[in-house]
Design brief:
Layout lengths: L4 E4 L10 H9 L2 E4 L3 E5 L2 H6 L9 E4 L2 H13 L9 E4 L2 H6 L11 E2 L8 H7 L5 E6 L6 H7 L4 E11 L12 E4 L2 H10 L9 E5 L1 H9 L4 E5 L7 H12 L3
Parallel strand pairs: 1-2, 1-9, 4-5, 4-7, 5-6, 7-8, 9-10, 10-11
Antiparallel strand pairs: 3-8
Helix pairs in contact: 1-9, 7-8
Length: about 250
């Protein structure tokens, strides 16, 4: 079946440069953005109880803008001045550029995949002697800890924010050709809001292995997966799928 509509379970982008708009323009697909989860901050005193001491680390691993915001919030609450020598390893250039709101941006200390280092995993392996602080929520869909363990890289996870289900009652239904999920929490939110949800002809897209696992555990059919060698981003995975099915 051809794809005419996609529900992206993330907030609507603040600018018109989002790659998802390229899909809409190119294939005439209707897009809707709806945040399935909301963020609650973890107070600095709770972060201390995780035995997190920011000055002990030489680098942080960042997978979202939310992680950046909460890292500097927690540092302020803990009355810790982040070292000017701290290095920042980001999953994308867009997230790296967001650091400009908080630090003096210098290429020598901000890293993101490009060139030979096509993924953050390549970067972390190349810089394996750093002491990393992995910034995350209480529910993580990242394989980064597995990679760090595999290469015996020193790190600690810091839970800086929590995810809770959004109220989706304003959605009369979830009748879209594709629903794209980015975390296990998104799947939880779907069924918390729509306990009788039936997939039927809806295609499910999932980003990350833990999201994929959550889809399967919920008894849903996984149709589109990212990242893969052919589709390192959700945008590419969606476009590859739409290109294939819409030409029929």
């Amino acid at each position: 079946m051809k794809v005419k509509s996609i529900l992206i379970s993330q907030p609507e982008p603040q600018n018109a440069r989002s790659p998802y708009y390229d899909i809409s323009d190119k294939y005439g697909v209707r897009l809707m953005f709806r945040q399935f989860i909301q963020v609650e901050t973890v107070p600095g005193r709770e972060v201390r109880r995780q035995k997190v001491n920011i000055p002990d680390y030489t680098a942080v691993i960042i997978t979202s803008r939310t992680a950046i915001e909460n890292f500097f919030r927690v540092a302020e609450e803990m009355r810790v001045e982040v070292s000017q020598d701290m290095k920042y390893f980001c999953v994308s250039e867009a997230i790296a550029l967001y650091l400009q709101k908080f630090i003096t941006y210098r290429k020598r200390k901000v890293f993101f995949p490009k060139g030979k280092e096509k993924t953050i995993y390549d970067l972390l392996t190349k810089h394996k002697n750093e002491k990393y602080l992995f910034l995350r929520s209480d529910v993580s869909n990242s394989d980064i800890p597995d990679h760090l363990d595999k290469y015996n890289i020193t790190y600690k996870e810091a839970v800086l924010y929590r995810t809770v289900c959004s109220d989706l009652s304003d959605l009369a239904d979830v009748n879209f050709d594709i629903i794209a999920f980015f975390s296990p929490s998104g799947i939880k939110s779907l069924f918390e809001n729509f306990p009788d949800f039936k997939q039927n002809n809806t295609r499910i897209a999932a980003f990350g292995s833990s999201t994929k696992e959550a889809v399967e555990n919920a008894g849903l059919r996984l149709d589109i997966e990212a990242p893969t060698p052919q589709a390192p981003s959700m945008k590419m995975a969606l476009e590859n799928y739409i290109r294939e099915v819409n030409k029929k």
